[in-house]
Design goal:
Elements lengths: L2 H11 L3 H23 L2 H17 L10 H19 L21 H19 L3 H12 L4 H8 L3 H16 L4 H10 L1
């Protein structure tokens, strides 16, 4: 575990709610986006992530994290999302168009529209990927996780992660547009 994360987790174990809040602020949005890939609803994803942080707090004295807290959180959200999806007896609400929201309040109206259009195009390209490849791509390029961390979270080999990323990049490169390539380079 990285020293900053380890220090935060140790503070949480000592009943420091501010440390939990800091961890929550740091990972909440990315974890919601990740969960949304499984539960297909922003509201359900928020519920899942909130449950993970609640469980982290309630079980803080009995949890032993061997890898990083980031990997632990992503693995917990993945498992909780799958459990949520499997226990839903009713059909899902209509899938929301986009779980990924971007706020850019300081941009001019034209630039904001252009940015939004490009972002929707990028999201469309990513959604064309098979589900596992999509998840791996998002974890690497959007959430900044390393191949090894992704492999641990998804319980697959690092080699599989690498192959899936190669295929994702091949797919994306079909959309050879300078605008898209620039945006993908900033995502990482």
């Amino acid at each position: 575990m990285e020293s900053i994360e380890k220090e935060l987790f140790n503070k949480i174990k000592q009943n420091d709610q501010a440390a939990l809040e800091k961890l929550h602020r740091q990972y909440y949005q990315a974890l919601c986006t990740f969960s949304c890939n499984y539960v297909k609803s922003v509201h359900a994803a928020e519920e899942v992530v909130s449950d993970v942080f609640l469980n982290l707090w309630l079980k803080r004295n009995s949890i032993h994290i061997k890898s990083s807290i980031k990997s632990y959180l992503y693995t917990s959200v993945r498992n909780q999302s799958i459990n949520y999806r499997n226990t839903q007896k009713q059909t899902f609400e209509e899938i929301e168009d986009n779980c990924f929201e971007c706020e850019s309040s300081d941009q001019h109206a034209d630039a904001k529209v252009n940015y939004t259009e490009t972002l929707h195009l990028v999201e469309k390209i990513i959604r064309e990927l098979p589900p596992q490849r999509q998840t791996i791509f998002r974890l690497n390029r959007i959430d900044g996780l390393k191949y090894k961390e992704i492999a641990e979270i998804l319980s697959i080999s690092v080699n599989t992660v690498q192959k899936q990323m190669t295929e994702a990049i091949k797919h994306i490169s079909k959309y050879y547009s300078h605008k898209i390539l620039v945006l993908f380079s900033f995502i990482k």
